[in-house]
Amino acid sequence: MLNEFNLETPCFVVDTEDFKNNIRRFSSALSSFFPSNIISYSVKTNSLPFLINVANTVNCYSEVVSYDEYNLVKKLGVETNHIIYNGPLKDKATFVEAISNGAYVNIETKREINWLIENKDLINGHIGIRLNIDLGIISPEDSKIGEETSRFGFSYESGEFQDALNKLHDNNIKIDGLHVHRTSATRSLNVYSQICKYVSDIVNKLNLCISYLDIGGGYFGNYLGKPDYIDYVKEIYNSLNINDSIQLIVEPGNALVASSIKFYSKIIDKKLTNNTTLLTVDGSRIDIDPFFHKKNYSYNVFIKSHSSSKQIQKVVGCTCLENDVLMELTDEKKLEIGDVIEFTNVGAYTMTLTPNFIRLQPTVYAYSNCEYKVVRNKFSVDQWINNSVMHIENKPAILFSNAGRRGTLIKNFKKTLGNQVKLIATDNWCVAPALFMADEYYVTPKIKEKTYIQELLNICKKENVKAITTCIDPEIELLSKNRDLFIENGILPLCPDEKTAALCFDKYEMFKYLTKCNINTVLTYDTLDHFNEGYKNKEIDFPVFIKPRCGSGSVGIAKVNSYDELVERLGEGKFNYIIQEFMDCEDFDADVYIDTISNKAVSAFSKKKIETRIGGASKTISFKDEKLFTFIKEIVKHFNFNGPVDMDFFYKDGKYYLSEVNPRFGGAYLHAYGAGVDFPKLIFNNINGIENECEIGNYNSDVLMMMYDEVVITTKDKLKGDYND
């Protein structure tokens, strides 16, 4: 199975249908005795988001015991009125939200009573209170040694339960139900019988009028020879002496999920010591028994050999703990390196308690309809680092000047570089969205101000900036003119030299230079007289394309269909236009990285435009063509680029033609990054004096990008300036 479906060990596998069937069978058992009932999945047992989603699809509520679990299930789309909120780790915000929007909220602490009184006018849910259950008194044979008394709920024997009810009553708050969950050593039918009798006695003594009883969890699941769901429900029904219309709530965890999950681990080493064969697996006892308290495990083996082992075979985990021993096999076939062991019934209190100890948390797959799909990726080193806060003195920084709307670009840098660098953003407007994605931001003057470069340099010195890149075209020439100044201060400007920058922003000079270098480009004229000469010589015909000679962002571009229209448009005097051959063919983009040490193109990502909006492509699909990659390498030889470059091409009659070069991150570089072309990594290498190896074309074809809108929400007090400026 593992080889057939390319499953990587160690891994958990969720049997989706088994999980659903367990929920349905328990729900059916409840309905047989209690017309009004709720089954609620105990999220703490296994908080895998996939399981919460599956439970939600079959009308199973979510039982949560902390504000984190509450926020988790809400984020996953569970409606508030399908949440049972228990435990002492509620916070006031989620508590108030829950009582206001139909949740079942069972009071566990005295502070919750105070919150309830403070917000009694908001109550629009079901309010219960947890009753302390002392198994040492009511069912000692079912209690765990040392855990006869419970630390949860309000005690009837001490009088705190009655005090809590009286305080609520004095504030005109009615209790709708009781919560009486109690963990036992035996999971027996008897413990539920004794709890029900105890609760019934208290309800009747205090003359309580409750509409629901939440009896909690603690049941066996699919275990042969153990009570089934229907056995528990029947015992509860026969033992209760409360009103016949009571709504019964159950909170199973183990009973639903344990049988639905298996763990697979492969043998990676084999040794012999003291007549015992030691078999090291890539999993650990921690994965299937985090508390190290089980004495045996249910398992199956998938082996190559059919011969018996003469020695005891001890299966040991991959950690450095001497007691990381899963089992000793005395009557089993001989296991070899590469054989796989399947551990069953491991869905409860395993994944949620598995630490990133020595080996990070493994992949989780879900099995359904004869297919396996990943539902939790293996935890990665990058995730671990990125989720850490490392206070590194004088940490190097990268600065994005005039960041504008390029927030996702900054997010991508964070994803790659994590806490290795600090990301700084600047803009002349305090409400530029990208500012709020950076680790620190500054509001600067406009680039035309005389003080601009000095203020930028001051920020770089203050923040230990090691590289700077701009997000707008007009600033590229300014940075290029001051390139030596930044380098003198230990800052790498990700921009071309002054000559190259000037060529990139004068389209006619670029045309002349490319023609001189024998690089295919679009036929271009700088004046109407020059065009008339070419038109007379039949070098060019209509339609033609006009654009500002030094423009950017698609401003002022137009297709012109006739000579009269051309004369009219040029006569408007809005721009200093160039006139180009209209390229009636496919156009493409390429994101190129030029190594700042070797000055060679070391990475390139090409994409076909599917949809273009003002300023650039909004939908693209990747492709690879060695002819284009060779063309890009040849182009780069004739310029002095540094860092990211966005190139536009046409493809006509079997040849590529260079249209434009923008020596900065292109707006659609996000596509390249999403396909695995990682310029932030290359920049970080160059900052550290490392020359990048060539990895041009190192991505997959037919990867699509579709841009969509995102927003930044903040408050006025967070702004570092006046948004009216």
Overview of this structure, please?
This protein is of the alpha/beta class. It has 4 domains: 15-256, TIM Barrel; 259-376, Beta Barrel (Lyase, Ornithine Decarboxylase, Chain A, domain 1), CATH 2.40.37; 523-581, Dna Ligase, domain 1 (2-Layer Sandwich), CATH 3.30.1490; 586-706, ATP-grasp fold, B domain (D-amino Acid Aminotransferase, Chain A, domain 1). It contains 23 helices and 32 strands. The strands form 5 sheets. Strands 1, 10, 11, 12, 13, 14, 15, 16 and 17 form a 9-stranded mixed β-sheet that branches. The chain has an 8-stranded parallel beta barrel with strand order 2-3-4-5-6-7-8-9, surrounded by 5 helices. A 6-stranded antiparallel β-sheet has the order 31-30-27-28-29-32. Strand 30 (643-652) and strand 31 form a beta hairpin. The longest helix is centred in the N-terminal third of the chain and has 18 residues, at 16-33. The mean pLDDT is 94.
What's the arrangement of secondary structure elements?
Blueprint: E1 11-15, H1 16-33, E2 37-42, H2 49-57, E3 61-66, H3 67-75, E4 83-89, H4 92-100, E5 104-107, H5 110-118, E6 126-130, H6 135-138, H7 160-170, E7 177-179, H8 189-205, E8 212-216, H9 229-239, E9 247-250, H10 254-257, E10 261-273, E11 276-281, H11 285-288, E12 299-302, E13 312-316, E14 325-329, E15 340-343, E16 363-368, E17 371-376, H12 381-386, E18 397-401, H13 407-417, E19 422-427, E20 440-443, H14 452-463, E21 465-470, H15 474-481, H16 483-488, E22 492-493, H17 498-504, H18 507-516, E23 524-525, H19 528-536, E24 544-548, E25 558-560, H20 563-571, E26 577-581, E27 586-594, E28 601-613, E29 616-623, H21 626-637, E30 643-652, E31 655-662, H22 669-674, H23 679-687, E32 704-706
Parallel strand pairs: 1-16, 2-3, 2-9, 3-4, 4-5, 5-6, 6-7, 7-8, 8-9, 11-13, 18-19, 18-21, 19-20, 21-22
Antiparallel strand pairs: 1-10, 10-11, 10-15, 12-15, 13-14, 16-17, 23-26, 24-25, 24-26, 27-28, 27-30, 28-29, 29-32, 30-31
Helix pairs in contact: 1-9, 8-9, 15-17
